[in-house]
Amino acid sequence: MDWLVALAEFLVNEILSVPAFLIGLITAVGLIALRRPTGQVVGGGLKATLGFLLIGAGATLVTASLDPLGSMIRGATGAQGVIPTNEAIVGIAQEEHGAQVAWLMILGFAISLVLARFTPLRYVFLTGHHILFMATLLTIVLATAGFSGTVTVVLGGILLGILMVSLPALAHPWTRRITGDDSVAIGHFGTAGYVAAGAVGRAVGGRSSRSTEELRLPESLRFLRDSMVATALSMVLMYVAVALISLAREGEAAYSAFDDGASGPGNFLMQSVTQGLQFGIAVAVILFGVRTILGEIVPAFQGIAAKLVPGAIPALDAPIVFPYAQNAVLVGFLSSFVGGLLGLAALSLWLNPVLGLALILPGLVPHFFTGGAAGVYGNATGGRRGAVAGGFVNGLMITFLPALLLGVLGDMGDLNTTFGDTDFGWFGLLIGYGAQLGTVAGLVVIALIGLLILGAAILMQRRVVDRGWDPSPHRARPAGAAAAEGAGEAAEAGGATTSTIPRTRKLAPPRGAPTPPPRP
Description:
By secondary structure, this protein is an all-alpha fold. The protein has 14 helices and 3 strands. A 3-stranded parallel sheet has the order 1-3-2, sandwiched between helices.
């Protein structure tokens, strides 16, 4: 049996949990199904892999750029508490639950494909690292409640498979509002934050709130229309402001925010400026990676749809929506961070003293990725006001939900980290408190929760998605000119097509976005 465990761990750790390899293999399978020449299969698979590696490289640059800023913010505020970091708690849990996580993840992925094949939910969840994160959360929660290893794997695998096809469907009306068609879906366990952002955006935006992409600037400020320049400049200003506050509060101790320290106040400030500029570069790398992957994965899924899962839609990571509203990404990030700070204040002054909830410090990486995506969703339904409100609501959610989640993680809740994104919070709480009802009652409640989520998703797909419901029909589609740069050429070369899922309404795609060929 040891070799089976080793094989499962290899598949999880070296292939399924590495999105680049998973995407490359699936792209190659799709191209093979289309009977493309060997050269196109190899080239398409490699290009898809390289696209995701570009996204990963950009994410690494973002993390490296934000780490010093987080240190300076903690120094400037003096706050101490728990920092939600998915990778950290997953790494710790692997030591105790590694084999169960591996089997649960494999079973969950297989169940998701079966559900995609035999239900109306034709979504194939391809964000491998998030599948690993959710598998780990389910293992921790069910094992903490006292379920056996077999029950944990089987029950957790079923729940994971349900989530992987249900959440993309529940968010798809808002995702389609952004992309203009059914070519891709959101496959990220921050879905609750994105749906909330879209709903709040509609409530506050109205008709009058312009899109974040419609900047009207005087000639002297035209350079700010370049999203990379605007992002870098905004982060430079934020970095310098926080650096000055941190320097005033801590003195030379603030220099420790950088790995090599600083030789003086001037060097400290210039390192801050450099980090802000590098943030702009990191975002540009992510956007280029997204455009590259879209040009390959969309046509490949035509083959998968024809052979394996008819009408399959790839559900991809949060940055997949970034090119459609690049300014909204920055607005959402900053608004989410402000929401995290205000949430921390509420925890410090009220919820911690009264209820004993842990203090959740705003982690800049989750606020950037989920907050940025929430800004895009809010902008799609409510323009600039929607982007601000959507990001803010997401920031509150990824502050309060992790604080509540600690109560169902058992010994893992005593660590200085936890799961950060919204779906880990609400779903972990439901499963955790359901499991605490006892073996029999807990199984019944958890099964009902899974069935309710699956049923709601099928209902959403049939009654809302397939009928072309627009969550913000009173607004013109947001300008998606940013998606044009590079995406059109990539799609033209790859022959991108939209999904074969029938629908009664198709929104106009962003200017320059991949244009589907005529249906045969």
